[in-house]
Design goal:
single chain, 228 residues, mainly alpha
């Protein structure tokens, strides 16, 4: 186990967020709104690309339906937002959207095959090249996010560190279990969630994506039990 890739990823998100906050202060509201619209559209396109990789839409459907039901029962969305608000209170922030920025950016940076595969490869000693690629993408994305959502985006580095760090630490346990088919359907499920984030960014509907997170566990389990 190394964890170097995740450390680089955390640094990239933090640096991108700081630059984004500085740039955002210089942008008029109309420009920030336009940037957010573009970000939302591209997020949806990225989600569609991943969602289309499914070999059987039933697996993402079951995973998301059961996962969302479980997430709502556990009030995961509210828990994430309260965590963001507590972090903001600790550092005496006066911004009102810190919780929203934390939840949205954390979901974007944690959902996706690069986070999973990169962390597993790093933990298995196969290098952290995938996480380097992810770091570059996340660094740029955090810059754009922070220019519109504020510095709460930087707090997502904490979520990334915990999530990817756990995958890296448990790589030897996860790698033998996670089959290519599981990863395919997991990627598709994450794609649907990313699409939901895009809809949320466009302010079309506030989909509670945080409550969908258990789907990332339920989908591969369903594949393991029922895929042929």
């Amino acid at each position: 186990m190394t964890g170097v890739g995740t450390i680089i990823n955390i640094a990239a998100i933090t640096a991108g967020s700081l630059v984004g906050v500085v740039i955002g202060r210089r942008l008029v509201e109309r420009v920030r709104g336009g940037v957010m619209a573009v970000l939302g559209l591209l997020t949806i396109v990225n989600g569609i690309t991943d969602a289309q990789k499914t070999r059987n839409i039933v697996f993402p459907l079951v995973g998301l339906a059961l996962g969302t039901a479980l997430g709502e029962a556990l009030s995961l969305e509210e828990r994430f937002e309260r965590l963001g608000d507590r972090l903001a209170a600790r550092i005496r922030s006066t911004h009102n959207n810190v919780g929203e920025a934390f939840v949205t950016s954390s979901l974007v940076f944690c959902i996706g095959p690069l986070a999973i595969l990169g962390s597993l490869q790093d933990g298995l000693g196969r290098g952290y090249q995938l996480l380097l690629v992810k770091s570059g993408l996340d660094g740029f994305a955090s810059l754009i996010f922070a220019s519109t959502l504020g510095w709460g985006v930087a707090l997502s580095a904490i979520a990334v560190g915990i999530y990817q760090g756990a995958l890296t630490a448990g790589a030897n346990l996860v790698d033998p279990i996670l089959t290519p088919r599981m990863l395919t359907e997991l990627t598709a499920t994450g794609g649907v969630m990313v699409m939901a984030i895009g809809v949320r960014l466009l302010d079309l509907r506030r989909i509670r994506v945080g409550s969908m997170l258990p789907a990332l566990l339920i989908t591969p389990i369903a594949v393991g039990l029922f895929a042929r």
